[in-house]
Design a protein that fits this description.
The chain has helices at residues 3-19, 30-52, 58-67, 123-136, 155-167, 170-175, 190-202, 230-234, 243-254, 258-265, 283-286, 289-292, 305-310, 346-358, 386-402; strands at 79-86, 89-96, 104-110, 138-143, 178-188, 214-218, 334-342, 363-372. It is α/β, with parallel strands linked by helices. It has an eight-stranded mixed beta sheet with strand order 1-2-4-3-5-6-7-8, with helices on both faces. Strand 1 (79-86) and strand 2 form a beta hairpin. Helix 4 (123-136) runs parallel beside helix 15, helix 5 crosses helix 7 (190-202) and helix 9 (243-254) packs antiparallel against helix 10. The termini are far apart. The structure holds 2-acetamido-2-deoxy-beta-D-glucopyranose (2 copies). One 2-acetamido-2-deoxy-beta-D-glucopyranose binds at residues 76-78, 134. Residues 76-78, 134 line the site of one 2-acetamido-2-deoxy-beta-D-glucopyranose.
Length: 403
Amino acid sequence: MGTKSLCLLLASVLVAYYVYTPVPETIEERWKLMLINAGFRSVAHVAEFAEWLGLVHYMEVLMMITSIEYTAPISDENVTVTDTKFNNVPVRLYVPRKQSSELKRAVIYIHGGGWCVGGSAMEPYDLLSRWTANELNAVVISVEYRLAPLHHFPVQFEDVYAVVKFFLQTSILARYGVDPNRVCVSGDSAGGNLAAAVAQQLLDDLEVKAKLKIQALLYPALQTLDLDLPSYKENENKPILPKSLMVRFWSEYFTTDVSLKEAMASNRHVPAESSHLFRFVNWSNLLPEKFKKDHVYASPIYGSSRLGKKYPGFLDPRAAPLLADDTKLFGLPVTYILTCQHDVLRDDGIMYVSRLRKVGIEVIHDHIEDAIHGALMFITSPTDLALGHRVANKYIEWLNMNL
Ligand SMILES: *[C@@H]1O[C@H](CO)[C@@H](O)[C@H](O)[C@H]1NC(C)=O
Ligand SMILES: *[C@@H]1O[C@H](CO)[C@@H](O)[C@H](O)[C@H]1NC(C)=O
């Protein structure tokens, strides 16, 4: 064998080794997903390296990559699309063209991206909003909240809250011809986190007269306390959202100080003074047997009280809606929760299902056995997956039947 062919062989082995990730057998289009994931991992490596060199912040590299997918607000035959501002917060607005005397439904959509990246203009989010507007003949408001590391909690939450509050005013609903009894707040991943937090906060806001009919939480992040749940353990290295990235997103939501990230990575970030909060995320009580499997519940290990004092955000229900007391959950709207089996955030969603059902909230739980985190991102060519389309259809169909 010549040197050239030996090199070629070696190179192919290295590429195959790099591309190969343990994608569960049950997931369709495994190799396509592995390739997509290899792309994500390469971006992560570039970001790490650039940050290590001191050139840019890790998230800036991720942001540059996601911005490639940005689209202009282009209207089509069915929907008028504009970029505007609600309460000084940018939003992308989708208004159906179809004339009718009936009042319309409305969906306030909050995109994912770990509070650090992403945007309503990204192609998959733009498409999802169009489909929703089209299928439901609904007004869709996609919120362009400010992101970390430039802005930390509670800025993201407050931006979204400001938009929701603005839109729920009687005069604004009337301006868009929206039925005040048929408004939904909806979001995926970090957007599901913000949607859940906003829905809780609205319950205490006496200034808001209209009530949400539905909250739809798509593989949401809901708690910061226990980053060692069975789903974190089982899916630590699954495609798109490895545990290390989720830890980075969580910590970056509150601060760029690496000491929080390091404490979170070893799950020793919660101060003993906050031990009472652990009952809200006790998976040993809140997960059905099927998800507990042979995992053994271990008591929490506490961290220094310094972190909790410096960054109280990570103990705040506006950042971690699972930390809300039961009395704060009464009155929440009908809730749709979608969880994916191969996702570090799976158990966050499932525990919220249990908590909400316990206090009598109507919850529809769609658990997708063969899905990964971020499935909804894969609906545009060339990175589209049958899975993405299936999950998007499931969600939009449910919304259409229930909003
Ligand atoms: C507009 O709506 C019609 C009917 O639902 C659909 O067939 C068509 O594809 C839509 N156009 C766009 C650009 O989405
Ligand atoms: C979690 O639940 C288990 C089993 O019910 C219980 O033994 C444990 O004390 C609980 N831990 C916390 C911190 O609530």
